[in-house]
Amino acid sequence: TDGYRRFFNLSNIVGLASAFAIASCIAPLFAGEYTSGTDQLILSSRHGKNKLISAKLFTGFSLTATICVLLITMVYFLSMLIFGSDGGNAPLQLYAPMSPYPLVMKQAALFLAVCVLLSCFMVAAITMFLSAGLKSPFGVIVLIS
Which residues partner with 91 through β-bridges? Predict the structure, then answer.
């Protein structure tokens, strides 16, 4: 169970690191148009507003999924490679004795990875919302950090 314990401990750090990387990559997504002055040109075109916004949202969420899944997968496999993957069918109560959930370590690791992914999606959504409202990417990074 040492590999799963290490993965549980490192998932907090991975979540924070991926959220910071996502926020700094996505911050200029909408705000960059205002600083460069191309927002009026792009939004006045025939299909500019609808297709541009949906393309930027798709780009932001797909980048978020890619970064988060890569980091979580890397930490999981490194933890299992270094500390061993035995104990995946052990009950979660070996790691958290007061846990009332009838989960095994593998299920808890999957649940934790999904929670980190969903939290990264939330950070991306808030970052894109702030990027659409603010005119400077620097202000977005300051607020989201």
Answer: 104
Count of structural domains, the chain: 1
Q: Decide: 92 and 109 in contact? Cβ < 8 Å.
A: no
For tokens 């932001």, the residue is 60
CA–CA separation, 30 vs 115, rounded Å? 26
Paired tokens of 90: 């052990």
Digitized pLDDT (tens) for each residue of the chain, 145 residues in all: 899 999 999 999 999 999 999 999 998 888 777 666 666 666 677 766 677 788 889 999 999 999 999 999 999 999 999 999 898 999 999 999 999 999 999 999 999 999 999 999 999 999 999 988 888 888 888 888 7
Q: Show the domain range for 79.
A: 2-144
